[in-house]
Design brief:
Blueprint lengths: L7 E11 L3 H11 L12 E8 L10 E8 L2 H16 L6 E4 L6 E3 L13 E5 L2 E8 L2 E6 L1 E10 L1 E7 L2 H15 L18 E3 L8 E3 L21 E7 L2
Antiparallel strand pairs: 1-3, 1-4, 1-9, 2-3, 5-9, 6-7, 7-8, 10-13, 11-12
Helix pairs in contact: 1-2
Length: 241
């Protein structure tokens, strides 16, 4: 059994978004985690960790826990502020809270408080700092900062090699079902599965990544293939946590 899996260090954080219903908490979370499959082109990797029941959230409403990763603290803070302002602040009935405890903090609500144009109100309650921002719907409540870690891991992967695409997909889907039961880990690609795994660099100038030709079944006869003759399809699951 070959137990090698590519992985690299990442900076990461977690936030909790709540709303009047699970539907709207999930809408905000889905919007926040959109276009966040890979740091290669998206600047971050993000995904939904779990649905948080109302009896576990900060404000007693349905919630969703989101994980966000980037290559460094500055990149993480930039992505967090941008996505918070465009995807959670804008979502009906939403509120947002820190969901990772750490001495190292990055701005959450503090990153977007000036949107309130001077009407923002700073509040401290039970040792935590919040911003209240008036919006047309009413008010957006957001914790000022959230914890972060530089010890996140990104890119940990599994490859599923099968005779057919249907077989590879069935195996990957079964693995995903089990992985989604593990807290603190996300699979950031569409539906959690990657069909176009990449290698570092490429033959064209400026390419950070290109198709992983060693694992492309249609190239077995013309490249240095890592596949045996019976393999007709390969899928990948990338894991961040």
């Amino acid at each position: 059994l070959d137990t090698f899996a590519e992985a690299f260090a990442m900076s990461g954080t977690a936030i909790q978004v709540t709303a009047d219903s699970e539907k709207w908490a999930m809408e905000a979370a889905r919007s926040f985690t959109g276009f966040a499959t890979s740091v290669i082109a998206c600047g971050c990797e993000a995904g939904i960790d779990r649905v948080v029941p109302a009896n576990e959230t900060r404000d007693g409403r349905p919630g969703v826990r989101i994980l966000l990763f980037s290559m460094d603290k500055d990149g993480l803070a930039k992505q967090l502020g941008t996505r918070l302002g465009q995807c959670i602040l804008t979502s009906p009935s939403s509120a947002c809270y820190a969901d990772f405890d750490s001495e190292t903090q990055i701005d959450l609500g503090s990153a977007i408080r000036y949107f309130a144009d001077g009407w923002q109100i700073s509040k401290k309650f039970a040792g935590r700092h919040f911003w209240r921002m008036p919006v047309m719907e009413g008010e957006f409540l957001c914790e000022a900062t959230t914890g972060m870690t530089g010890d996140g891991v990104g890119g940990g992967n599994l490859l599923f090699m099968a005779r057919t695409g249907a077989q590879a997909l069935s195996a990957a889907e079964a693995a995903l079902e089990a992985m989604r039961e593990v807290p603190g880990a996300i699979m950031p690609f569409p539906g959690g599965i990657v069909r176009s795994g990449s290698k570092v660099g490429g033959k064209y100038k400026g390419m950070m990544a290109s198709t992983n030709d060693a694992y492309c079944p249609t190239l077995k006869g013309v490249t240095q293939s890592a596949l045996t003759p019976d393999i007709g399809s390969v899928l990948e699951i990338v894991i961040d946590g």
